[in-house]
Amino acid sequence: MTTNVSWLPFEKEPMGKKGLGLIGFPLSHSFSRQFFADKFDKENIQDFYYDVFPIPDISLLPELFNMYPNLLGVNVTIPYKKAVIPYLDDLNEEAAAVGAVNVIKRTQMGLVGYNSDVFGFGESLNKFLQHKDASMINNALVLGNGGAAKAVLYQLPKMGILPTLVSRTPTPDGITYDDLTPDIMNLNRLIIQTTPLGMSPHVDESPNIPYSLLTPRHFLYDLIYNPEETLFLKQGKARGAKTYNGHEMLVLQAIKSWDIWTSDL
Ligand code: NAP
Fold it and tell me: Fewer beta carbons under 10 A from the terminal one: N or C of the chain?
């Protein structure tokens, strides 16, 4: 099969290999491509390829799978995590609950959407909360109200933690940054940062919480992994809070993606 479509990484699908990849736009550099290249190398996996597909419009998804008959599945990133849903034949429980998909698998039933961010977040938070001072954490503030926050808000109650959404604009179930009183800051020892503040080009910004009320009893988790330490985490650390970034979540969602794609091979 040949093609001359400019957004495809190769004209001919690599022979004798099962295909995996990443869709999003634009895709300048990809953690996932490097992660899977390293994995295939280390584990001597020769019958898979993983490449990036910077499709400029999500309506091209069916065409992508038609063009590459050996494409087994893809990861999905910004800006398609929600927009991809109408193009799928089914969703698993997490993806349906969160309303966002970051893994697609081709099955006999068609294209099925999954959300491995939920797994990545849950497992990494679990590691963070193994800390000896983390017992009795039952409440958390979740800063931001985007797709990543939805995965966090879905997972926290499953871990016995009651989340409170903190948004810039009032929401029916949440509060705003102006509502963060000393009592609320004292009750919520875990704070999950899900806004883009702290990431390029916002590296000098952090969510507008009262940092002076943070203490060594607080646990700050930032979903951002680049830079390793955001201004949010720095300000927490300066007051003795424990901190954790999003790198482990990123690795764990990739590992989970692989398990989803290969579970029935
Ligand atoms: P998003 O939809 O673009 O933004 C999340 C929310 O942040 C928005 O809904 C908004 O909530 C708030 N926000 C946006 N700009 C803001 C600003 N200037 N000031 C204050 N709040 C602002 O992003 P997302 O897709 O949910 O992702 C959020 C972050 O998580 C990104 O940094 C992403 O890289 C990271 N992430 C990491 C992983 C991982 O594996 N580690 C996985 C997924 C995402 P309000 O308007 O309600 O305030």
Answer: C
Active site residue 39: no
List phi, psi (to 5°) of 30.
-130, 120
Select 18-115's CATH number: 3.40.50.10860, 1.10.10.60, 3.40.50.720, 3.40.640.10. 3.40.50.10860
Other beta carbons less than 10 A from residue 57's beta carbon: 11
What's the whole-number mean pLDDT along residues 40-64?
95
Domain boundaries, the chain: 18-115, 118-249
The domain at 118-249 falls in which architecture?
3-Layer(aba) Sandwich (3.40)
236 lines ligand 1 (CB under 6 A): no
Cβ 120 under 6 angstroms from ligand 1: yes
Residue minimizing CA distance to atom 14 of ligand 1: 195
Q: What is the mean pLDDT of residues 128-156?
A: 95
pLDDT at 5: 61
Span from the CA of 180 to the centroid of ligand 1 (angstroms):
19
**Averaged pLDDT for residues 67-90:** 96
Quote the DSSP letter at residue 226.
Answer: S
Segment 102-127 mean pLDDT? 97
Atom from ligand 1 closest to the CA of residue 199: 32
> Which one from 81, 105, 242, 256 is the annotated catalytic residue?
81
Tally of CA atoms within 13 A in the half-sphere of 241 that contains its CB? 27
Q: Which residue, judged by its Cα, is nearest atom 18 of ligand 1? A: 197
Q: How far apart are CA 33 and CA 41, in angstroms?
A: 12
pTM: 0.94
